[in-house]
Structures are given as structure tokens and as C-alpha cells.
Write a structure and sequence with these properties.
Layout: H1 12-15, H2 23-26, H3 55-65, E1 72-75, H4 78-89, E2 96-101, H5 106-113, E3 117-122, H6 131-136, E4 142-148, H7 160-169, E5 173-177, E6 199-204, E7 217-220, H8 223-232, H9 240-249, H10 255-273, E8 278-281, E9 288-293, H11 296-305, E10 311-312, E11 322-326, H12 330-342
Parallel strand pairs: 2-3, 2-4, 4-5, 5-6
Antiparallel strand pairs: 1-7, 6-7, 8-9, 9-11, 10-11
Helix pairs in contact: 4-5, 10-12
Bound molecules: pyridoxal-5'-phosphate (PLP).
Pyridoxal-5'-phosphate (PLP) binds at residues 77-79, 104, 148, 152, 177, 179, 204, 206-207, 212, 217.
């Protein structure tokens, strides 16, 4: 396997970027008399600027994921990492990106903001990954390819071998969004990260880790790619409170909660499949279920009337009459099931 020359994919102005140097970048010690950053000296918990490199949180993630800390970027949500991919690798008005469809909406929005054309490649009919069509969609302008696995909203994870084949064969940067990987039995690409210089794996603390409110997304890649993420990001992108809270919460054991969500997913899958108005519940490797129902709009409003809010995905390609339901607590799921059971289309 030939390692790809990543520098060739980096936008020329970014290649030569001299990043902002913060006061905290220059002095690395933790104790001292800090008269370098024009802060208010009176301690109130947030009077100091945060660590721009999030050393403590990154160390924890490094241990948890068994990935070198130089290969970890922490962003203000995965959204920041997605946006940075466009800003680092794409030239506005010139470059293109490829994304599977249906999938997460942010890839397209970030592309549009950065004036980058997105070529959407439909999944195969059974929601499997169209490897050949994805590769065939690329040309000289193509810098990025987004694949979400387990995929949102279809819920299925793609086989590791196919994702590796894409990384190997795609002449650009492959971004695999593993936001839901903690709910999947099919594993993560992180153990093979070092084999692919053009691979970025996205994860997040928003789902299994229960920190959606903190806005903390993770990107894993080569040290070289991560160094560009860190050069282009806002210097203090993760605030003091988020760093402290993430550090505290990353020390918890979430495995029991994940098992509970997975067993509820199984229970819901069966119960929903047994409802008259439900035509199909798609298999899920995530913490949500996609189901095709009779008259999605009507069921959606009946759920809404009972203050049960789900996502109508009917407007998405291949998702006609489909609702996406997050696995909640057993009580919440029961409330939702009750309404679906009684629903007459
Ligand atoms: C929820 C989700 C994320 C997480 O986004 P954050 O900005 O980290 O909260 C990322 N990718 C996909 C596909 C998601 O569904």
C-alpha cells in the first residue's frame, strides 16, 4: 500500500498558514503569576483562558481510545471538525466532495458554507455501501469523501473491509463519521488508523457519552492532519467549563448505560415490528431505529400531540414514509410504543 502524500491535498494558503500564538501556547507551566493574557486576576472559576490544546481531556481520550494524543483533535462538536475538513482541504468554488446519501445533513451544509460542490451517492437499495459508485464519483477536483458508519438515519454500520477499501483506493481524504460507534458490534476504524494517512475518524461525546450539551466532537487522524486542524481552529475552541466537565465525565463507566440502551433497542425493534401500522423496522447498530410506517406524517403528528417528538425523515432519499426514533428510557419508549400500537392510519 502506498501512503498518500497528504500535503498535496492541503489548500495552499493553509499549507503556509502561521497560526495565532496564544499566551498559553508560550508558557506551558500550570502554576505561576499569570500577567500575560490581560485576564481578570480574581478567581471565579472561569477568569482564566482555557488550555488551547485541551491537554488533560486529550490525555484521557488517548487512554480510553488507545490513540496517541498527537492524533487527536477536540472540536466544538463534530460540526467543527466537519467544517475544518472543508476549510483545510477544499478550495471554495473549485473543489468537490463526495457523500453517501441518505446521511447526516451537516456534510452538505458545511460544504455549502465553504462553496464546495457535494456529489451525493445513493446507498444500495438494501442500505449497503456502494463502494464502486463512491469511487467512480471522484475526479481531479475531489478532496473529501464522507461516510457515516453506523449511518444516520439508516442505522446500519458498514463492513470494516469496505471502509478500508475506500481509504486505500480513494485519492483524497476519507472521513468516516463514527458518532454512533459505541452502540455497534461492528467495531471502529481506530485500531487501523495508522495504516491510512488519508483517513479521518470522527467520534463525539454527544451520543453514548451523554454530553451533547457540552459540544465536544473528536477527530482522529495522522499527526500531520491533526496539526493542520490545530492550526486552523479558533485558539480557545473548547471553553474552560466544557473541558472540566468532559474530564470529570470521561472518568465514568458508561458501559452499563450503553448495554441498557442496546437492550431497549432490541425490545423496541421487536415491539415496533409487531405494530400494524409499521411496515418495516430497519436493523440498527445505533441508538435509534428507522421505521417505515403507513402515513408517516400522520403518525408523526399523533406522536407530537402526545408530546412524543420523533424525526420525520420522509423527505430524505430512500426514506419515504420513514420516522427515526431515538431509543429513550424504558418509560419514554413505552409512551411512544403505546401511541404507535393504537395508531390507525
Ligand atoms: C449526532 C451526530 C454527530 C454529533 O455531532 P456533534 O456536533 O458532535 O454533537 C455527528 N455525526 C452524526 C452522523 C451524528 O448523527
Amino acid at each position: 500500500m502506498q501512503m498518500k502524500e497528504i500535503l498535496d491535498y492541503i489548500r495552499p494558503n493553509i499549507r503556509n498558514l502561521v497560526p495565532y500564538s496564544t499566551a498559553r501556547d508560550e508558557y506551558k507551566g500550570e502554576v505561576g503569576i499569570f500577567l500575560d493574557a490581560n485576564e481578570n486576576p480574581y478567581d471565579n472559576g472561569v477568569n482564566r483562558y482555557p488550555d488551547p490544546m485541551q491537554k488533560r481531556v486529550r490525555n484521557l481520550i488517548s487512554e480510553l481510545k488507545n490513540v496517541d494524543k498527537e492524533r487527536i483533535f477536540i472540536g466544538n462538536g463534530s460540526d467543527e471538525a466537519i467544517d475544518l475538513c472543508f476549510r483545510i482541504f477544499c478550495e471554495p468554488g473549485k473543489s468537490s466532495a463526495i457523500a453517501v446519501s441518505p446521511s447526516y445533513g451537516m456534510y452538505k451544509v458545511a460544504a455549502a458554507v465553504n462553496d464546495v460542490e457535494v456529489r451525493e451517492v445513493l446507498l444500495n437499495e438494501d442500505f449497503s455501501l456502494p463502494v464502486d459508485r463512491l469511487l467512480a464519483a471522484a475526479d481531479d477536483t475531489t478532496r473529501l469523501m464522507f461516510v457515516c458508519s453506523p449511518n444516520n438515519p439508516t442505522g446500519n454500520a458498514f463492513p470494516m473491509e469496505q471502509l478500508q477499501e475506500l481509504a486505500e483506493s480513494f485519492n483524497g481524504i476519507l472521513i468516516v463519521d463514527e458518532a454512533y460507534v459505541d452502540f455497534s458490534e461492528k467495531g471502529s476504524l481506530l485500531p487501523v488508523l495508522e495504516s491510512y494517512s488519508n483517513l479521518i475518524v470522527l467520534q463525539t461525546l454527544s451520543k453514548a457519552w451523554g454530553m451533547a450539551g457540552l459540544r465536544t466532537g473528536l477527530a482522529f487522524a495522522s499527526e500531520q492532519i491533526i496539526s493542520y486542524f490545530n492550526r486552523v481552529k479558533y485558539p480557545y475552541n473548547i471553553n474552560v467549563t466544557a473541558q472540566r466537565k468532559a474530564e470529570e465525565m470521561l472518568r465514568r463507566d458508561i458501559s452499563a448505560q450503553i448495554s441498557r440502551i442496546k437492550s431497549e433497542r432490541r425490545r423496541l425493534q421487536e415491539a415496533l415490528a409487531g405494530c400494524r401500522a409499521v411496515e418495516r423496522v430497519f436493523p440498527s447498530d445505533a441508538n435509534f431505529l428507522l421505521m417505515r410506517v403507513k402515513d408517516a406524517k400522520k403518525l408523526y403528528s399523533q406522536l407530537l400531540q402526545a408530546k412524543v417528538i420523533v424525526r420525520d425523515r420522509s423527505s430524505q432519499p430512500m426514506c419515504s414514509e420513514c420516522l427515526r426514533v431515538t431509543v429513550g428510557t424504558p418509560e419514554e419508549n413505552e409512551r411512544m410504543l403505546d401511541i404507535v400500537k393504537k395508531y390507525i392510519p
